[in-house]
Amino acid sequence: MPSLLDELSAEMLPAVEQEMHAAFEEGFPAQFGLMHSMLVYHMGWQDIPEGNATKGKRIRPLIVLLSAMAVGGDWRLALPAAAAVEFLHNFSLIHDDIEDKGDFRHGRLALWKKEGVAQAINAGDALFTVAFLTLQRLADPLSAQTVREAYQVLGKACLNLTGGQSLDLDFEVAKDIGVADYCTMIEGKTGALMSAAAELGALVGGGGTEKQSALAQFGRYLGLAFQVQDDLLGIWGEATAIGKSTESDLVAGKKSLPVIYALEQNEEFKRRWNSGPIHAEEVGKIVADLDQIGAKDYTQQQTDMFTHKALDYILYLPSDNKAVLALKSLAESLTRRRA
Amino acid sequence: MPSLLDELSAEMLPAVEQEMHAAFEEGFPAQFGLMHSMLVYHMGWQDIPEGNATKGKRIRPLIVLLSAMAVGGDWRLALPAAAAVEFLHNFSLIHDDIEDKGDFRHGRLALWKKEGVAQAINAGDALFTVAFLTLQRLADPLSAQTVREAYQVLGKACLNLTGGQSLDLDFEVAKDIGVADYCTMIEGKTGALMSAAAELGALVGGGGTEKQSALAQFGRYLGLAFQVQDDLLGIWGEATAIGKSTESDLVAGKKSLPVIYALEQNEEFKRRWNSGPIHAEEVGKIVADLDQIGAKDYTQQQTDMFTHKALDYILYLPSDNKAVLALKSLAESLTRRRA
Description:
The structure is a homodimer.
Chain A: H1 4-25, H2 33-42, H3 59-70, H4 79-99, E1 104-105, E2 108-109, H5 111-115, H6 117-134, H7 144-171, H8 179-204, H9 208-236, H10 248-251, H11 257-265, H12 267-274, H13 283-293, H14 295-312, H15 322-335
Helix pairs in contact in A: 1-3, 1-4, 1-15, 2-6, 3-4, 3-8, 3-15, 4-6, 4-7, 4-8, 7-8, 8-9, 9-14, 11-12, 11-14, 14-15
């Protein structure tokens, strides 16, 4: 029997896809065919044999719709907000891949590897714009005031998203990054958009100020838990399932949470880390060291802690509401995933 | 005696600067100090001896405010729209400089030359966001519906702006670009934001649909005239005043309007152009050839034609309105400038 989350996803995600297509095509100027085709490629809408593997998981729009339903609203009215959030996430992927020199995305060449840096920067800007234009589709009976507020929520999330990315880029070269700095960074880079997703759902669902704030916090902590779990999987995950070597975060020199924790806790690890890049053949030993220092346990505890904080914020929502139950399952599945 | 345009500019531009500062600082998250300082640098707000030379001319916000006043509105209510348009223009400069490999901007190092490509892409994204957030400052007695429409006008302009830039990047490598392709490109790249500036002014000034459309067309043609004049100055302008050699557009291989016209009109020019880069020492001869082909005259005629079309759209506005007269002066001064 499919779970409640599976059941709702199966209903909602095709509607999201349909809304994204409609919003994307609506008013896209015909003379800009080149830019159009670049964005179609990035979005995974081209007819490519791999099928769904070429798209993202569409977690954020699902959070928007479940949040709208969780506060008693009609999730269909929230579809434009869900599409906007997913476009915004995808814009950030285009630019992040350039900034972080990521060659692949969803199993295909990243847009900048395919079309060059200049066109990819610009295509990202276009998708950013599409995200904001999509909010115009929020329709009756929603008021213009709700739309105005939706723009504010999405705008603030973007500012935090770019701020977090700026810190992340800086951390690559900065010395002595601590756990506190790391948390500030991921609050922006991952927390902000997940928070906005849940908040937009609550706003459009007519949940009122209090539920809106609570869901914003739910999304925020869910984002933090998700990111910390991502860091854990970057060292201890099942390599094939995430399409890259388990060792890559260490070899790439990424200052993820386990590394930052170990740098704070252990002088010997710090000496090794600061002495130069970690080679693939060393990874087994370094992972054993990290285990011994307690970095894996610490990271797992942080994921659990953030997940619990997230769930605390939706505790009081009615447990006979299917979407509330689905949000809880989603939180658990995201933070217990193995890939 | 200062002209009416000078008089209004002297009153409006300091108010724009104040609004931009206030909008920029409002809610800028304190933890993102690095990103903040990059944007302050780009905006020319740092305490640099050159003073005003380090900022742009702020033409677009002036168009917003004059348009608001020209339809009988209170220009002060339009300040957030003026600031938003200028932020958006500045975002596009940050990204254009990366995409076009422009090393300098307003007499200083371009942001990407100073901070690297990754941070500069991201800082541009942040400024894009600031532009959209600034529209939230449109205040009473403006309705939420007006704000919603302002988001739509700005969003559509952005889509055209990025579409135009995509074509411009493509034209660098494409063969057989004609005058018609060129016009499609500059409609997006330069026309769209000028059009949005005038339209936003008319919207916020309460001019009604008809005047809003008329001013959108005024801004559009003004933008086209401005860009074509820019192309003319890129070959025949006073080099020192624009901070680069008069020859640079030819040496840079830029497919500006005079070149595209000459490519269409003259086989010999086309053979020379297609045979490889133009060297600095050849420029005198090539300019003489362009003169002889009639490329300069044609370009000047196009500027005049676009300027007249622009002015036609504001003909019926009351000529006892100071802002209407100032818009006319602005159109004439922009398209008769020598630098």
